[in-house]
Design goal:
The strands form 2 sheets. This protein has a 17-stranded mixed beta sheet that branches. The longest helix has 12 residues, at about 1-15. Residues about 1-45 have low confidence and may be disordered. With about 475 residues, it is mostly beta strands. It has 4 helices and 19 strands. It starts with a helix and ends with a strand. The chain has a single domain, classed as Porin (Beta Barrel).
Length: about 475
């Protein structure tokens, strides 16, 4: 026992700790805390510098980080403002997230990972009023306690399917120094669905890249998550040289954007399936395409039924939650591509769609989305640890969803009391500058037209600032 204690103390002495002005949305917050997975495309996505070196050969892992994002917006035009609108007057907000990552390797094929987190602060207008919200770290439920909580706790098992092995990029999501080239991975416990699905090396790391919900992730992917962005379940993943296939079975929340999960699988559950093919579209350039499908079952309302109940006088306004318990299904798909263009430049594109009939339940109120952008490393201008990017995202909702909002209905993210529909278009650009060792600072600028799909409001200019430190 003393030998294990000495190893743990030694690991703690080398532990890393990070501070950052970054994204965490207590609904989506630590899903993209870092790019934990093999990126496939390396433009601007290399591992961050740290203040102290990480251990590479020990059984234990201890690290941590704290992230802050400051954002503001000037006053903007609004013909009217509803209960879930972005406030049209000047406002500012700061969010924070602190995370302690720990892990222990039980043997050469099994590890246990436990992450403890604390989140606080808030987003602009308490993270309401924009479907593709500006800060992935923003706490969507400001009444949540600021006490630390278990973000992830999972057992990770790797089954070797080949004798050939490769070096593993050790980090909070896997501490194995090596893994088989061909392997089956099983994970069970508490995790963020977006830790493993819809990852993208150019546009998924909200701590070093884009901050917007629908830029850093597929906005139409209504993946299983509680208010803080986590769920319980199991994931099976097959990895080969050039392709991978992963499947996840997860719990859904009891209510939309709720903190408590439904443990009765007959009432609610979610399936996620993703195929990943690592092949460049350009000669001698790396690239990856991921095809995603998801199916959610939960006590979700139906927009057409809610509008019908209102028009027939059963309710005073459309209410997507005013229905007896009934398990309904919501399904969707996603296409996620990234392509290296040069040694220092890569592009990405995402397309997402869901049926748009049933209630937006776990992520945000987007029924279809298209997003594209580029990311660059600073090698070109002799700033090797810097990175920069720009992206354009266009979000939309179904006709049933439009009618629901136009008649005064409210979702858990948007609802202006009326609606003159237009696509919600978002432009974002950032520059992440490496100051010293593990210290990064990143100005960010977002321009949102038709916030919450409403042509009677906006456009909105949202400048922001992020600080990131890895020790």
């Amino acid at each position: 026992m003393n030998r294990w204690i000495r190893k743990l103390v030694a690991a703690a002495q080398w532990a890393s700790f990070s501070i950052g002005f970054c994204n965490t949305a207590s609904a989506q917050l630590a899903h993209s805390v870092e790019s934990f997975r093999d990126p496939g495309v390396a433009a601007g996505a290399e591992a961050s510098e740290v203040m102290l070196p990480h251990l590479r050969d020990e059984r234990f892992w201890i690290s941590g980080q704290t992230n802050f994002i400051f954002q503001a917006h000037p006053g903007f035009y609004a013909k009217y403002t509803g209960a879930n609108s972005l406030v049209p007057n000047y406002e500012k907000a700061t969010s924070r997230v602190m995370t302690l990552y720990t892990g222990v390797q039980l043997n050469n094929s099994t590890e246990v990972l436990v992450h403890v987190e604390e989140a606080g602060g808030n987003g602009l207008s308490t993270a309401l009023g924009i479907a593709g919200f500006s800060n992935l770290d923003a706490v969507r439920n400001p009444t949540l306690s600021a006490s630390p909580y278990i973000a992830r706790v999972m057992v990770h098992k790797v089954f070797a399917l080949s004798g050939e092995r490769k070096e593993n990029d050790r980090g909070p999501m896997s501490i194995f120094p090596e893994v088989p080239v061909r392997r089956l991975e099983l994970r069970a416990g508490k995790y963020g669905t977006a830790d493993f699905f819809d990852q993208n090396s150019v546009g998924s790391d909200s701590h070093m890249q884009f901050m917007n919900w629908s830029t850093a992730q597929n906005g139409a992917y209504d993946y299983a998550a509680d208010t803080r962005g986590y769920t319980w379940g199991a994931i099976a993943e097959y990895q080969d040289r050039r392709w991978a296939l992963r499947f996840g079975e997860s719990l859904m929340p009891q209510v939309a954007n709720g903190l408590n999960m439904e443990w009765n699988l007959r009432k609610a559950h979610a399936e996620n399936l993703e195929y990943e093919f690592r092949q460049g579209f350009l000669p001698k350039r790396q690239g990856t395409i991921r095809l995603l499908g998801f199916l959610n079952h939960a006590n979700m309302g139906v927009y057409r039924d809610a509008v019908g109940a209102y028009l027939s006088g059963q309710t005073t306004k459309p209410d997507i939650t005013a229905h007896p318990f009934k398990t309904t299904a919501k399904y969707g798909l996603g296409i996620n591509m990234e392509q290296s263009l040069t040694r220092n430049l890569a592009a990405y594109a995402r397309y997402g769609w869901n049926d748009g009939k049933t209630e937006s339940y776990a992520y945000t109120e987007i029924d279809s989305t298209v997003s594209t952008g580029i990311g660059a490393s600073g090698d070109r201008w002799r700033r090797t640890k810097d990175r920069a990017g720009m992206a354009f995202t266009s979000n939309a909702i179904s006709s049933d969803h439009q009618k629901y909002l136009a008649n005064g209905g409210l979702g858990f993210i948007i609802g202006d009391g009326a609606l003159r529909y237009g696509r919600e278009n978002i432009f974002e650009t950032y520059y992440t500058a490496h100051l010293w060792r593990g210290i990064f600072v990143a100005p960010d600028l977002q321009y949102v037209s038709n916030p919450a799909y409403n042509r009677d409001r906006g456009p909105v200019l949202i400048p922001g600032l992020r600080l990131h430190v890895d020790l």
